[in-house]
Amino acid sequence: MAGEGEASKVKKNNDVRETEDKVTKALIIDASGLFHVRNAYAISEITNAGYRLITTSLVAGEVKDARSQALLDLINIEILDPDPNAINSIKLRNPELSNADASIVALASSMVARGVEVSVLTDDVGLIKALRKYVKGIRIITVNVKGRNKP
């Protein structure tokens, strides 16, 4: 996980923040997004546009390198986990997805269903296909990685 800071706290009951304000825009960040983002300032600007930066504990658990762990803390990303039954449902329909990827699809789906404007930052082709298939009205932001094709 992201360390001992605020980013390492797992929020329960689908509340993104422990305040009464409602989330209207969220950027869910996949591990691949964290690995390939080179400019933390660009991500911090997204928060200035009203987006909450979110990932799941399964994704945060994939982050092993020091640079990406530092980025998690620097951008003050919030950890939010979807219902485990929703993750299992996604996995049953898409067994090729990792548990972390299925958690992103489940989280994005539940947030969109609650009226949140959701974007996902990733370069994972399988995740992108699953998001497009199961989450209507989502915006996908891909990270350009040299030598890699876009989906």
Describe the structure.
With 151 residues, the protein is of the alpha/beta class. 43% of the residues lie in helices and 16% in strands. α7 links the parallel β5 (117-122) and β6. α5 crosses α6 (99-113) and α6 runs parallel beside α7. The longest helix has 15 residues, at 99-113. The radius of gyration is 14 Å and the shape is globular.
Summarize the structure.
By secondary structure, the chain is an alpha/beta fold. The chain has helices at 31-36, 40-48, 57-62, 66-74, 84-93, 99-113, 125-134, and strands at residues 10-11, 25-29, 52-55, 78-80, 117-122, 139-142.
Strand composition percent: 15-25%
Report the radius of gyration as a whole number of Å: 14 Å
Largest sheet: 6 strands, parallel
Return the average pLDDT rounded to an integer: 79
Question: Which structural class best describes the helix and strand composition?
Answer: alpha/beta
The ordered string of helix (H) and strand (E) elements is EEHHEHHEHHEHE
Number of distinct beta strands: 6
Instruction: Name the poorly predicted regions.
Output: 1-20
Helix content: 40-55%
Q: Ends: how far apart?
A: 29 Å
- Described by the principal axes of the CA atoms, the overall outline is globular
Number of helices: 7
List the strand order in the largest sheet. Answer: 1-4-3-2-5-6
List keywords for this structure.
6 strands, 7 helices, single chain, alpha/beta, disordered N terminus, six-stranded parallel beta sheet, 151 residues
Summarize the topology.
Layout: E1 10-11, E2 25-29, H1 31-36, H2 40-48, E3 52-55, H3 57-62, H4 66-74, E4 78-80, H5 84-93, H6 99-113, E5 117-122, H7 125-134, E6 139-142
Helix pairs in contact: 5-6, 6-7
